[in-house]
Amino acid sequence: MPTRFLNSGTAIRIVLLTVFAFASGISQAELIDFASCADPEGAAIQAADCHAFDNRAYFGPVRDQGEGDLCWSFAATALLEEEACREDPSTCGQALSVLDAARCVRAERAGGDPYFALQCALNSGVCQENDAPYTASFGLLRMMPISRVCEKNRYQFSNRMLQPASVNFADNEQKLFTTISRKWSELNRLAQSGRSFGVDFCTREEASSRGKNDGDESCGAHSVVVNAMKFENCECKMHIRNSWGDRPEFSGWTSSTSMIQRIYRLNYLRQAKPHPISSGRGRAGSSFRGRH
Questions:
Q1: Of 34, 65, 81, 194, which is least surrounded by CB within 10 A?
Q2: On the CB side of 51, how many CA atoms lie within 13 Å of its CA?
Q3: 3-state secondary structure at position 25
């Protein structure tokens, strides 16, 4: 195996980056890549903002929404599937019902909001995909009656302290972008939590560059889930779980730098602060329940 020689300047940078590695949890093996970047100082800063996590094992196969408009429910359901897997490992890889999560919100118009789907499902539970299957032909028919099997077999989340949350990057005039630094800060915070998070973004680049008005269809608004991040080849990358089946657009590993330009909202689950008055019954959310 050939030996890789480093000049004195590079060696000094590696020593400095070693200190950074201990503080940020980055592996020793990645330091050579950092030192080999065209701009090592900038790479170190970028690496600091790129907290690696990988939750892909929590999820089952990627599904396809087809011509339906329930991307927001697919994204919310994916986050719920991860939470169910964390609570009960026997549920890992099992698909929850996108249709049930959407009907829980009782949306009466095209489009929707992952936040309310998360909120409703955490309170009411959600059944498995087999008990309320999704097909693209359902489209606007998501208000169809819920089957008795679905009602009987809903998974009830045991962590009662879990709450949905969102970060909107629109200002009072509903323009798309605040500063990129604020977006990086929020992404960094969510990545540090170790949980996957949802992303609402513009699929049309020309629309994302000029700004988006809330509800503006020209943006090509879409919802996905980021379930992994890593620093590789001098670049922060995020792994996107989309609801477009095998189509490669906005799916898999992609550049965080290019993606962040398009993002206008983040959706995620967070642990609420416990009530200051103790009931004497132990820690909230410490017991686990299976599907009911």
A1: 194
A2: 16
A3: coil
- For 263-291, what is each residue's pLDDT tens digit? 889 999 998 766 554 443 333 332 222 22
Residue 161: how many CB atoms within 10 A of its CB?
Answer: 14
Q: Which residues pair with 240 in a beta bridge?
A: 226, 252
Q: Whole-model pTM? A: 0.74
Tokens of 241: 């779980």
Which of 227, 224, 223 has its CA nearest to residue 238?
227
Q: List residues bridging with 268 in a β-sheet.
A: 165
What stretches of 106-204 show up as alpha helix (H) in DSSP? Answer: 114-124, 148-152, 180-193
pLDDT confidence of 6, banded at 50, 70, 90?
very low
Beta bridge partners of 83: none
- What CATH number labels 53-271? 3.90.70.10
For residues 58 and 91, is the Cβ–Cβ distance under 8 A? Answer: no
Query: What are the pLDDT digits (tens) for 80-104?
Result: 999 999 999 998 988 999 988 888 7
Burial class (CB in 10 A: 0-12, 13-18, 19+), 269: buried
β partners of residue 200: 223, 265
Give 252's DSSP letter.
Answer: E
